[in-house]
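Supplementary Methods. Inverse-folding protocol.

Structures were first reduced to a discrete structure-token string of length 365. This string, shown here, constituted the complete conditioning input.
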């Protein structure tokens, strides 16, 4: 589990003292002593430092807001590019917590998530951000929901979350429109909103995840949600999240992400080059031949219907939607990649622990 946890943070997050998200010591570990302080950490109220050094910061995710690229990373760093990733400028962010995921539904409206239970919203294409949730508020919501159920085990778990303070890392975000969205994270955290994040509802009690395994990827389409996590965990809801069931998993290692192709297929990826494709929302999975022992750290759909995966060393794995073969393109400049997006001009943009990188548009043939 330690190896799975370590590489989950390669893709998603780094804690205090970040020297590189790939380091195993930076993952939340079950053996770690739980914090007991209930006061809000100072980083939740301290704006991100505006500095030229932000251009070389460890960046963990990148997405599109219309034609603009928005990248997020350590210490609340948010970078914006309006020339397809050639140049970047730092945005103003009201906190210094590490941000691990970003999702925009149009050119202006988007969210970012990260450590300490942080959920932020932007209404100006990432130029500025407003806090919607932090770890203390998240724990309080879980406790209130548990008290309503009267379930003793759920109440005990919720009270433990409260005692642990703000330490609630989110690892992935998914919004289907400007109102409906989902955030998932460590120890089985899952929150949902139906009003653009004005209110977030804890969904931990809906998930068949008795071991509180970390959740790393979530994708939604229509009323179907699929969640992937450590130890091969796969969960699915076909009733818009009212209930979830576990899915048979094609392997026992950790999944570090999910992507949905333009044709509707799901691709799950993780440890030691593991990648699987499903054409029926996770009921059945076909193994993809990655031809690499390197962990797959990020992935995104391509406009032409295929998809691209990136290993933790920066190698690319290209695929057509209708094939089980992945074509490997070795990295000319090995780098610890954590996120990937397609720019409006077709170029690939990588978020890495050494800043942002732009690569020419890939050819699938």
């Amino acid at each position: 589990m330690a190896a799975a946890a370590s590489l989950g943070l390669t893709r998603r997050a780094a804690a205090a003292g970040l020297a590189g998200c790939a380091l195993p010591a930076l993952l939340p570990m079950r053996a770690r002593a739980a914090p007991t302080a209930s006061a809000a950490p100072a980083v939740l109220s301290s704006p991100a430092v505006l500095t030229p050094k932000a251009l070389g910061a460890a960046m963990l995710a990148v997405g599109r807001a219309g034609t603009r690229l928005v990248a997020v990373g350590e210490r609340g760093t948010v970078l914006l590019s309006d020339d397809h990733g050639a140049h970047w400028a730092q945005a103003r962010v009201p906190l210094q917590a590490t941000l691990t995921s970003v999702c925009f539904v149009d050119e202006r409206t988007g969210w970012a998530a990260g450590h300490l239970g942080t959920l932020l919203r932007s209404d100006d294409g990432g130029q500025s951000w407003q806090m919607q949730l932090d770890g203390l508020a998240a724990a309080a919501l879980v406790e209130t929901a548990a008290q309503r159920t009267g379930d003793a085990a759920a109440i005990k778990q919720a009270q433990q979350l409260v005692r642990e303070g703000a330490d609630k890392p989110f690892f992935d975000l998914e919004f289907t429109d400007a109102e409906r969205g989902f955030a998932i994270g460590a120890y089985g955290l899952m929150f949902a909103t139906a009003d653009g994040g004005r209110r977030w509802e804890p969904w931990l009690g809906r998930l068949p995840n008795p071991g509180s395994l970390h959740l790393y990827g979530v994708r939604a389409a229509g009323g179907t949600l699929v969640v992937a996590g450590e130890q091969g965990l796969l969960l699915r809801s076909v009733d818009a999240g009212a209930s979830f069931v576990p899915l048979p998993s094609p392997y026992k290692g950790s999944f570090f992400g999910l992507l949905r192709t333009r044709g509707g297929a799901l691709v799950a990826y993780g440890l030691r080059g593991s990648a699987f494709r499903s054409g029926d929302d996770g009921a059945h999975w076909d193994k993809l031949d990655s031809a690499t022992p390197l962990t797959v750290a990020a992935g995104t759909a391509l406009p032409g219907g295929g998809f691209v995966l990136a290993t933790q060393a920066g190698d690319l794995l290209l695929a057509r939607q209708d094939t089980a073969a992945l074509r490997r393109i070795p990295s000319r400049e090995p780098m610890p990649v954590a996120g990937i997006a397609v720019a409006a001009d077709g170029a690939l943009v990588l978020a890495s622990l050494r800043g942002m990188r732009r690569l020419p548009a890939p050819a699938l043939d």
